[in-house]
Write a structure and sequence with these properties.
By secondary structure, this protein is mostly beta strands. 6% of the residues lie in helices and 31% in strands. It has a single domain, classed as Exo-inulinase, domain 1 (Jelly Rolls).
Length: 234
């Protein structure tokens, strides 16, 4: 169960959480612990810290293919990641994991293949954004373009939603507002077959486990994230 924001002030950890090994990935006031994808820091990006959230204003509504995405400075294998988010009506974003910056995401000559790649927990206004109407794998909490969420207990755009991504060994779960909506096994025949039918079919070991960064996607739309915390495993 994802804790309610009412249980504690935003962007803080309880004494129990600290004792259990939780770490804030966003302190509510700075971008400490974050940098641009393939960049040494967060300068030149659209991301701003305001009113206790790390977010984006409305832009051109296009995927920046990693150019303005934000990643954690640390990498993770097993983890329990929890975050609260809000999109404005008609907005699109996403939280990616297993994101690397090595040759695995590059094609011939070193060119980037589709930008900052990783397994994406879709964050979108299902009701209004056109991408969410393409198919069920493009709706909120799905493993983007690979596996849909079983349900979508999303609160309306303009209100806060709570999410969780859990990785334990090869087992992955997506949660939305306290409900487990998706689970899958990394490297399983089901997932590898789904990857072959997705836009990631030519991307190396996509669908298997790699140690990588957590990423917040700039898709050119307005979005805010807060209460981003992680309990790291191996």
């Amino acid at each position: 169960m994802v804790a309610s924001p009412a249980d504690a002030p935003p962007n803080t950890l309880t004494a129990e959480e600290k004792a259990a090994g939780w770490k804030l990935l966003f302190d509510g006031t700075t971008m400490k612990g974050w940098r641009g994808y393939l960049k040494p820091d967060a300068s030149g990006l659209r991301w701003k810290v305001q009113d206790g959230c790390i977010g984006l204003p409305k832009g051109q509504g296009q995927d920046t293919l990693g150019e303005r995405d934000l990643i954690t400075t640390d990498t993770y294998g097993d983890f329990d990641l929890r975050f609260t988010w809000m999109v404005e009506p008609g907005s699109n974003s996403g939280v990616k994991y297993f994101v690397t910056e090595d040759a695995a995401v590059r094609g011939p000559g070193g060119a980037k293949v589709g930008g900052a790649l990783g397994h994406e927990y879709q964050v979108i206004d299902d009701e209004r954004h056109e991408d969410a109407k393409i198919g069920t794998t493009h709706k909120t909490a799905g493993f983007y373009d690979v596996k849909p969420a079983a349900s979508h207990p999303m609160l309306p755009a303009g209100t806060w939603n709570q999410s969780r991504i859990l990785v334990q060994g090869n087992h992955v779960e997506h949660w939305l507002n306290g409900t487990k909506v998706l689970e899958y096994e990394l490297g399983s025949p089901e997932i590898l077959q789904a990857v072959k039918a997705s836009k990631f079919k030519d991307v190396g070991a996509f669908g298997t486990k790699v140690r990588g960064h957590i990423l917040l996607q700039d898709h050119g739309d307005a979005v805010c994230y807060r209460d981003i915390k992680i309990k790291a495993g191996a």
